[in-house]
Every structure is written in C-alpha cells, then in structure tokens.
C-alpha cells in the first residue's frame, strides 16, 4: 500500500524537498501517466517541431556558409519561422495543461486522502485552461517588468506570484484575486519561500545539466576535439546530424518533466504557509479523531 503524504502540514526547507521527492516516488506512475494522457499530443508535436527547428537552423547556417543566403533560401527561413511558431505555441499549451493537471491532481489527492479522481481532474483542467493562460500572462508580464526595473524587484515579485497558481486552484480564487492575494498570503514567509525555491531550482538545474551531457559529448567527439583535429565547420553540420538532434530532443524532454519538481515543491510551500495561517490540517486531524471515537 502506498504511503499517504499529508500536504496540510508545516514543513521546513529540508522536509519540503524530501516530501517533494517522496510524492514523486510514491505517485510516479499515476501522476505522470495522467499528465501524459492530457498533454501527449501536444508534446509529440512540440518535440517534432523542436527536432525540425534544429534541422532548419543547420540548413540556414549552411546557406550562410555557402554565401547562398539570398539564393532561394527564403523558403528555408519561412519554414524555420513557422516551425518556431509551432514550437512556441505547442510548448505553451503543453506547459499550461501539465501545470494545471499537476495542481488538480494534488488537489484531488488531498481532498480524497490519496485517492485521485482522474475524471474530475481532467474536467477541471479543461475548464481552467484559459484561467491558467490568463494568470500565466499576467505573472509573466509582472516578473518581466520587475526584472527590467532591476533584478531585485523581479526576484521579489516572482516568489509570491509563483504561489498564485496554487491560490487559484486550492482556494478556488479568480485570476485577479489569486494575483493580488499572493503578496499578502506570503507576507512574513517570503525569505523561507525564496530559499526553498532557490534550493529546488539549483537541484533541478544540476540534474538538468546532467541530461545535457550526452549531446555535449557527442558534439565534442563529432568535432574532433579529442583527436586534436578540430573542424570549425563541424558545428553547423551538427544541427543536421540525426544523432545530435535526437540527443538534444531527449534532453529537452527530460528537462520538461524536471519542471514538476519545482511545481510540487511550490505546492508544499503553499500548504506550509496556509497551515501556519489557518491550521486547516490541524483542524482536519482533530475532526477525524472525533469521528473515530
């Protein structure tokens, strides 16, 4: 029997990180299985577009090297731009659907003490798509504006706004309420939340860099670095090398799923703060004790 992880509890940084990986380990198959059910078509198109984009970049680079950029290359440029547009569009859709699926999965998990109603999750994901898009756009603009002013304001607004999605899902708040209430919600807990997000970000970055090693090693070997016969023109040809393209696409695919470590960690941050403010988990446990007597 799988261990049930209580989200409604106060946790320190170490416990949040530990329980994030415990949740992924315990719920790995149903959690990622449901996410794939929702986003797989968009992921397939996204990764196919990514592979073709790599190939298009290599083709365009070869045209530049051959001084043939303006000799019939307009089609190649348009193809590359169209592929990039498809890549961005499907990437946004896949991320929005995956993010909402993860949050509604956890919501169902919490409400039913570890038993997830997948049909309700799918319905909620479908009905909340544009809410997630809307909040994502507002959050993105706010964080970007903060970083344009100075790095510190960007970091400051990023921390509470990263929790705004949890407020929208777990407290059923509107886009505007989730955005505005996130600043008050995280009051007095900003530093702890920032430190947790920062540490989790480092962990995700380190693991992600490991996934990039195969493509990097292949490119080094392909360019003849180890043999001492470096071919400067080999870099352009790499983008049209099927092995190099496949290794890069696999690397991006693995990094895509690494994002869920951060998403789940932020949910634990939300419940940690919510428990300190409202003691909802404590009251639930007291209530459950009363029902068993």
Write up what this structure looks like.
The chain has helices at 13-65, 74-111, 118-127, 129-149, 151-170, 175-185, 190-211, 213-222, 234-238, 242-278, 280-292. With 293 residues, the protein is an all-alpha fold. The radius of gyration is 23 Å and the shape is globular. The two termini are 25 Å apart.
Task: Report the helical percentage.
Answer: over 70%
H/E element order:
HHHHHHHHHHH
What gyration radius follows from the Cα positions, in whole Å? 23 Å
Beta-strand content bin:
under 5%
End-to-end distance = 25 Å
Mean of residue pLDDT values = 87
Instruction: Indicate the structural class.
Output: mainly alpha
The total of beta strands comes to 0
The description of the largest β-sheet is:
none
> What is the count of DSSP helices, taking H or I runs of 4+ residues?
11
Residue stretches low in confidence (pLDDT < 50, at least 5 long) are 68-72
Shape: globular
Question: Which terms would index this structure?
Answer:
globular; 293 residues; 11 helices; 82% helix; mainly alpha
């Amino acid at each position: 029997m799988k261990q049930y992880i209580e989200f409604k509890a106060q946790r320190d940084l170490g416990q949040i990180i530990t329980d994030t990986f415990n949740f992924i380990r315990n719920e790995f198959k149903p959690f990622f299985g449901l996410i794939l059910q929702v986003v797989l078509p968009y992921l397939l198109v996204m990764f196919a577009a990514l592979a073709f984009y790599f190939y298009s970049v290599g083709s365009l680079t070869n045209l530049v090297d051959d001084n043939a950029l303006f000799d019939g290359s307009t089609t190649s440029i348009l193809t590359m731009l169209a592929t990039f547009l498809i890549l961005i569009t499907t990437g946004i859709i896949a991320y929005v659907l995956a993010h909402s699926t993860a949050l509604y999965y956890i919501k169902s998990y919490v409400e039913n003490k570890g038993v997830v109603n997948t049909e309700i999750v799918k319905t909620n994901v479908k009905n909340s798509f544009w809410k997630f898009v809307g909040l994502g756009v507002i959050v993105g603009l706010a964080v970007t504006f903060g970083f344009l002013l100075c790095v510190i304001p960007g970091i400051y607004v990023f921390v509470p706004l990263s929790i705004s999605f949890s407020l929208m899902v777990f407290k059923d708040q509107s886009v505007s309420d989730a955005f505005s209430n996130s600043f008050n919600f995280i009051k007095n807990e900003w530093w702890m939340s920032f430190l947790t997000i920062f540490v989790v970000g480092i962990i995700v970055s380190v693991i992600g860099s490991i996934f990039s090693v195969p493509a990097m090693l292949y490119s080094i070997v392909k360019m003849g670095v180890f043999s001492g016969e470096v071919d400067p023109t080999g870099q352009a040809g790499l983008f049209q090398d099927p092995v190099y393209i496949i290794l890069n696409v696999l690397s991006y695919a693995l990094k895509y799923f690494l994002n869920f470590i951060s998403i789940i960690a932020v949910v634990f941050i939300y419940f940690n703060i919510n428990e300190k403010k409202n003691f909802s988990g404590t009251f639930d446990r007291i209530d459950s004790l009363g029902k068993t007597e």
